[in-house]
Amino acid sequence: MSRPMREADLYLVMLEAIEEGLNIDLQPFCERLQVERRDLLNQVAIAVARDFLSNKRDFEFGDEVMNALINPIVDVSMHAEMPQPAFDIYQAFDAGEYLHTGDAQDVCPREKHTRPGLENILRNHLPTLE
Please, which domain of life does this record's source organism belong to (predicted)? Predict the structure, then answer.
């Protein structure tokens, strides 16, 4: 992984993702920050996951950012390996959007599926990324 991005830069990418949605263009960020798309996606996704787990940002914020980043994540995977953990983090947020088969009606999907999923992803990926 390239050098770590500053928190302020990560947040700017998150805000751009929310503003632009599926139309986000990451190239200006990559050029300005001198970072590869894969690294940018992974670092932003990790920041989104950490912010949700620490209750710094809510589920809706993280889910909206990750939904906006899915096209760039898939685009990168068309020419190289799937960006990880970005794709797994996207899937963890996606899992919190709905009740799963077997879930009781009073289950909060983001607490049952997203939070433990993100904890597991960060625990398993971060030692290899840092």
Answer: Bacteria
**Per-residue confidence (pLDDT) for residue 41, from 0 to 100:** 98
Ramachandran sector of residue 3 (left: φ over 0; alpha: ψ -120 to 50; beta: rest): beta
H/E segment holding residue 95: helix 86-95
Decide if 35 is inside a domain.
yes
Tell me whether residue 104 is in a domain. Answer: yes
Q: Which amino acid is at 112?
A: K
Per the domain annotation, does 114 fall within a domain?
Answer: yes
Residue 130, pLDDT score: 47
Rounded Cα gap, residues 28 and 16, in angstroms: 11
Q: Does the pTM exceed 0.85?
A: yes
Q: How many CA atoms lie within 13 A of 113 on its CB side?
A: 22
The total number of structural domains that make up the chain: 1
Q: 91, 98 in Cβ contact below 8 A?
A: no
